[in-house]
Batch of 2 targets.
Target 1
Amino acid sequence: MFRKIEHIGIAVKNLDAANAMFGALSQLGLLKTEEVETEGVRTSFFKLGETKIEFLEATNSESPIAKFIEKHGEGIHHIAFDVEDVEAEKQRLQDAGFEFISTEIKKGADNKLICFLHPRSVNRVLVELCQENL
Ligand code: ZN
């Protein structure tokens, strides 16, 4: 069962510019920035109540974010739902016929264990499952 929207991910060309823009827009302070080398992204987070906004910038041209921006331009990239047990949720959804981009559970930004459903299973929305990695 999904518990909350953990964050909304937005693909951007320039992370520093996006951070400045969102700070001015929201009057929120930047929570943190973090590079996830394995995914080829630099990320930043702003916290609003129980939910965060994540900005993602590609660090190389093979990055999924670089490919997304090439295809769609900047904008909303994914919605991440918080789950208690990502392995159990992945199994439940696979059993229900949902497709995953990769069934490998990875370590994502913000100390999370994550995996992504394929957008074709979810009305073309990229869905991330994430579990707090305690
Ligand atoms: Zn995310």
Note: Residues 7, 9, 54, 78, 80, 128 surround zinc ion (CB under 6 Å).
Target 2
Amino acid sequence: MEKIPVHLKNRQSLVIVGECFNNLKRYFNDRNTFIITDRNLDNIYKERFPDCPVYIIGPGEKSKDLAVVGDISRWLLDQGTDRKSFIVGIGGGVVCDIAGFVAATYMRGVKFGFVATSLLAMVDAAIGGKNGVNLDGYKNIIGTFTQPEFVICDVDLLLSLPEKEFVNGMAEVIKHALIKDRSQFKRLEEFSTPVMARERNEMEYMVGHSARIKATIVEMDELEHGERRKLNLGHTWGHAVEKVTGLSHGESVAIGLAFSAGLSVKKGLMTEAERRRVLELLKTYELPVMSPAGPAEVLDALIKDKKREGDSIHFVLMKGIGDVVVEPINLEELKNFAINEQ
Ligand code: NAD
Ligand code: ZN
């Protein structure tokens, strides 16, 4: 078991990798605790839930809605929840976002913790204290920065995660290795078979390393003024790909990572051999590296999205493998690269 403390200005949050889900009840007083989960997790794991009232949301992004926040808050009120109560979100990124948002706002905030059940939640969504919901199709437009008391990552729960969702999370794992951990990148190259089989030892190692990278970056910049921008690696281009193609988030980020690697070579920050390694690793984990939509269309979506930033946008580029730099890129230069040189 690995405990990763996340030291922040006002409090400490703890990410616990390798803890068993069955020990969840050790982390709170169950008489005044309320669980939020989604229907899939409830179906698979309800026998192992602590004996607390449970609110079940529909699975998927559509639950990240203010109406659902209202429904859960009404339920909490009916249950007699007060400011001393505790909320536990058991689920993937959607449950963590919504449970964290409800906890941060109900009666101006009650304490909360997460059991992260998807790979993406374990290494990304559950860590860092951002909790958001969507509005009118705009993602995470309403939200808070409030840290969970704990994030439990029982990697055995990954065994029931659908393959597509696992691969989705691998895009963020690869992103973290590219940002800060050359040796994990190498390990992902060498150990793809046990990783894809989700073997416990390999999962604990991988989730531990990846979660630590996110935690370290969040500690340096909790409120996203600088360092935390590095986490956008692959996401500027990736979000535009996601919008245009409807590919999953992880697939789109993988295409964004490949794009960023290409631009980094063009800028003289990365060698062609390193770029090839990035593409190979993404393919090894069954992630795409080429957008099915053309660059002009993706660029159009990107510019629409970033129009407030002016003539240039902040882009995260790779300085070899295991280091990144955030640079302003002129939109004309980006266009030239995307359309003529990619
Ligand atoms: P998700 O929560 O929708 O989970 C994906 C699917 O897998 C769901 O159907 C879920 O029911 C199922 N599932 C989860 N764990 C399972 C398990 N152990 N066994 C079987 N099924 C399981 O999606 P996600 O990919 O985990 O998270 C995506 C969300 O996270 C997005 O809304 C995104 O905006 C958010 N996010 C937030 C942050 C943040 O900092 N707050 C960061 C990254 C992503
Ligand atoms: Zn992402």
Note: The longest strand covers residues 138-145.
